[in-house]
Amino acid sequence: MRNPIMSRIDTVFIHVTNLKESVRWYSKLLAIEFNEDNQFEGPIHTFPMGKNRPGLTLDCHCFDEQYEFIPSNQPLFNLSTENIDEAYEFVKSIGAEIVTEIARYSDLSEFSLKDPDGNILMICSCITEH
Q1: Percentage, residues of the chain above pLDDT 70
Q2: What is the DSSP track for 73-121?
């Protein structure tokens, strides 16, 4: 049988409890314009993350009465930066909880933070910094 599954990722889901507040927070994190007048009834909102890149979809499960929210306790993906130190200071400036301090390796630097629901995200720089 021919495999009908494509080897690509179209979107990454982050499960949230309040869609509008999460869209506001992720808009700030990603520097994407947020319009307070938009209705965020759900169940999802997808941020475009660039041409030929997977989207980032917030899912509040508002129509699923059986759903039990459990935040991700480890990062399932990373967001990129060219300057890990600036990214760290920016994340602190928006009030995000830092989970791990900056770790520097020969080929990348990274740190982790929590979104308002406690999901852990990672910020990485794959540029060697000296």
Answers
A1: 97
A2: SS-SSEEE-S-HHHHHHHHHHTTPEEEEEEEE-SS-EEEEEE-TTS-EE
